[in-house]
Design goal:
Double Stranded RNA Binding Domain; 40% helix; 3 strands; alpha+beta
């Protein structure tokens, strides 16, 4: 897999959009205009994703995929339908990119000798400070 898993792919034909009344900003406009945008993408029926990518998406985005296998995203933060559509598309591509980008393997490291010495010295200082708080011994 390349470092940019979605380069050269346009998912627009496979996306379905629907608009409804929003509860977001817009004043009286909220009561009249359908500005909330909902994006639906059927993961398993996608022709642009490989089988491996489909399984990765189902694992990582399983909580956002419904029983029919659709990934559902909603945006209602903007005042216009067009801006909400753009926002939900950005959210979709960001989510796919994040899910399909492989995680780097962690290289186990050890603290250096200087770091260990610093830690022990600070523990000694705190120990002395606490010892001085106690009552004097008879």
């Amino acid at each position: 897999m390349s470092s940019y898993p979605l380069t050269g792919r346009d998912f627009t034909p496979e996306l379905r959009f629907s608009a409804s009344r929003s509860s977001g900003p817009g004043g009286q406009n909220v009561n009249k205009v359908s500005t909330k945008m909902e994006l639906r993408f059927h993961v398993m029926n996608s022709a642009l994703l490989t089988g491996e990518e489909k399984t990765i998406l189902c694992e990582k985005l399983g909580t956002r995929i419904n029983n029919e296998g659709e990934l559902i995203l909603v945006s209602q933060s903007e005042r216009t339908q067009l801006k909400n559509k753009e926002a939900v598309c950005e959210k979709f591509y960001a989510m796919l990119t994040k899910a399909l980008t492989p995680r780097k393997k962690r290289k186990p490291t050890r603290p250096s000798a200087v770091a260990r010495e610093k830690r022990l010295e600070s523990k000694r200082i705190i120990s002395i400070k606490k010892e001085q708080r106690s009552k004097p011994k008879p």
